[in-house]
Design brief:
Pfam families: OmpH. One of its GO terms (cellular component) is cytosol. It comes from Flavobacterium tibetense. The structure is a single chain. The chain is mainly α. The protein folds into two domains: about 180 residues, no CATH class; about 120 residues. The protein is about 80% helix and about 0% strand. It has ten helices and two strands, in the order αβααααβααααα. Strands 1-2 form a two-stranded parallel ribbon. Helix 3 packs antiparallel against helix 5, helix 5 crosses helix 6 and helix 7 crosses helix 8. It is elongated, with a radius of gyration of 42 Å. The N terminus is likely disordered.
């Protein structure tokens, strides 16, 4: 009945307001907000620990009563009528005590409810204060609680201000720790967040820009990694070349012995033999080596040119995509 009266009253109010100006409504989910407040989680944990301890005490007491009942059942034939009645009275008394203890801890006005109210009230006060501030700043006419007894058959997401309430609570707690300069920066940040709340398109645009920024940063990282790889390859090739030249110099100094680097030389190496090289053969080997190295340099330059062209093409496409966006 109360819900019907409340809904009728709200409908009448909406009609009255709509004749003058648009009605601005919002709603919150109190359960969701409380779960996001750190103090609530800590308080809930404390209460859960107490409740668990009380349940354990109740279970121990119930087991004791069950043991008394089993004992009486077993020994009944051996006991006098007076002893049976005495034990039954003791069992009944302990059962009554157990019920009273359960009511004391978990009843409608028991310790669990009372302590939950006492511990959660300061947190709820923070939530209500934040809701009041948001309502005044953004000119809300009505704000409902989605988790309350008032049934909301449909609620569009854009009217949910639960996240704004959570932010407002966090802001209030953080302001006490900030310097004047930090406070000014925080206020600018809060103003931007509030603007995004009022304009979802702005928030979506900001998200898209952030995604593009991340994509650009990823592309730059990939290019940097590729450059480092190429530099490392060049260093390795230069080191191998230096080592090869040093080996050739050492071979010349030693006289006439050199290890061949062509397929025929490899066959000779497999046979574990070393040839004596004539001056004419030496000249041919030097020319062949020069030709081979020239071919390798040409191939490396061609690969590098191809890589640079690919990078330029990728950068060009990225710029075109940015212009389109």
């Amino acid at each position: 009945m109360k819900k019907i009266v409340l809904l009728f009253t709200l409908a009448s109010t909406f009609l009255t307001y709509s004749q003058g100006r648009g009605v601005k409504i919002g709603y919150i989910d109190m359960d969701y907000i409380l779960e996001k407040v750190p103090e609530y989680a800590e308080t809930k944990n404390q209460l859960d620990q107490k409740a668990l301890k009380w349940k354990q005490e109740i279970e121990i007491k119930r087991n004791e009563i069950n043991k008394l009942k089993e004992s009486l059942k077993t020994e009944r034939v051996l006991l006098t009528k007076e002893l049976i009645e005495e034990r039954e009275e003791e069992i009944a008394f302990q059962e009554k005590e157990l019920l009273e203890y359960q009511e004391k801890r978990f009843g409608a006005s028991g310790d669990l409810i009372v302590q939950r109210t006492m511990l959660i009230k300061p947190i709820q006060d923070q939530v209500f204060t934040a809701i009041q501030d948001i309502s005044e700043q953004k000119k809300y006419d009505f704000i409902f609680d989605k988790s309350s007894d008032l049934t909301i058959l449909f609620a569009a997401q854009r009217f949910d201000i639960s996240e704004q309430v959570i932010r407002a609570i966090g802001r209030a707690q953080n302001r006490e720790k900030l310097s004047k300069k930090q406070l000014k920066e925080q206020e600018s940040k809060e103003a931007l967040e509030d603007m995004e709340d009022e304009n979802p398109e702005l928030a979506a645009r900001k998200t898209a820009l952030e995604e593009k920024k991340l994509a650009r940063e990823k592309l730059l990282e990939e290019k940097k990694a590729e450059r480092e790889r190429l530099i490392e390859e060049r260093k390795k090739a230069a080191e191998e070349k230096r080592k090869k030249l040093q080996e050739e110099r050492d071979a010349k100094k030693s006289g006439t012995v050199i290890e061949k680097d062509n397929p025929e030389a490899k066959e000779e190496d497999n046979k574990e033999t070393v040839e004596t090289v004539s001056p004419e053969d030496k000249r041919k080997q030097v020319e062949e080596e020069k030709a081979r190295k020239a071919e390798e340099r040409k191939k490396a330059l061609e690969e590098r040119r191809k890589k640079i062209l690919e990078e330029r093409e990728a950068a060009k496409k990225a710029k075109e995509n940015e212009k389109k966006d």
